[in-house]
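Retro notes, item 3 of 5
We never archived the inputs for the pyridoxal-5'-phosphate complex last cycle. Fixing that now. Sequence and ligand:
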Amino acid sequence: MALKHKLNFVDSELEILKKNNLYRKMKYGISKGSKITINNKQLINLSSNDYLGIPTTKIQINQLQSSSRLISGNDDSYKKMEEVLAKHKSQESSLIYPTGYMANLGAISTIVKKGDLILSDELNHASIIESCKLSDAKVSIYKHNDMEDLNKKMKEKGKNKFVITEGIFSMDGDLSSLKQITEIAEKSKAITIVDDAHGDFVIGKDGKGTPEYFKIAKQIDLYISSLSKGLGSFGGYIASQRNVVDLCINKSKSFIYTSALPSFLIEYSLKRFQSNREKQKKILEKNTKQLTKGLKEIGYEINSHSQIIPIIIGNEKKAMEFGKFLFDNGVHAQPIRYPTVPKNKARLRVSVTAWLSNADIEKALSIFEKGHLKFYD
Ligand SMILES: Cc1ncc(COP(=O)(O)O)c(C=O)c1O
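Structure as it came back at the time:
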């Protein structure tokens, strides 16, 4: 009982979250194709990051090697997949981490040091923000995709300078101004880091990602990405020069002090990588066009240029009510609130996948049309 009393502040914190409509509760669901079943209710899934919707891959599950990669968890499948990923990014080398989040934490905190300057886009993902804090460098946040501000902040002092941006922004669906970023970085000899978790496998020639889309892939010094989004598998990776990868193997804590992903997941990723991704990419492009066009025709203001389509509501309570309305009518589109996005910028994050059929999209649009009158003015 005494222990409970000591933890009373936890209740106070939870109460504050509830009062501000920021309390999060997990739903349990089973996904299958374009649908997700939650509480026995089948819904059209517009909240999946399995963008390419590669048909299910069969793999064999052998005995797990439960160990870190530097001890005994380093199966041959890693070697093959890392070679494939390095080639995919036209880099010398690559390194797989258990998640994209851990890839950011590990790589950024390893190569950025105290005394350095990081220029980070204000809408960068939480894993980048945490990585910057871990590095002990000075962090200067530039306004979202604002090249004038980046140019200004680039003049601040730092031993080594780093620019860090997402490729496709995860909650806004817009593309970073990568071409200009690399030009500004080049002038100041700054190192360019791109977290392309949402662009990788999805855009650019052969799904090589956002830098390839802008034809500046060679100007990127360090790629960080996830295998858990476009590829629909699991894990994270970096791709860079051999010495950067070598230093990460030697120094990055989220690589060294954790167990390796089981090799069947690496084989799963490899099989999905080798599947007909081009076909899925075309379906995804078609679905994205259809859903974006339909939402605009209903009257929603859509500024995204990718498979991530946020419908900005603003007020957190209203966004939650809209999410519930969609749920009750058969669509799962998760409301996103602070701190994932700024306060009063709550939204429904609609993500398109190649799983969706024409009928799914038409049905979803008819529900969004009903919701427009009630929740969007
Ligand atoms: C931009 C960005 N980076 C990194 C991550 C983390 O990737 P993972 O899910 O593989 O940990 C995410 C996931 O949401 C993301 O949106």
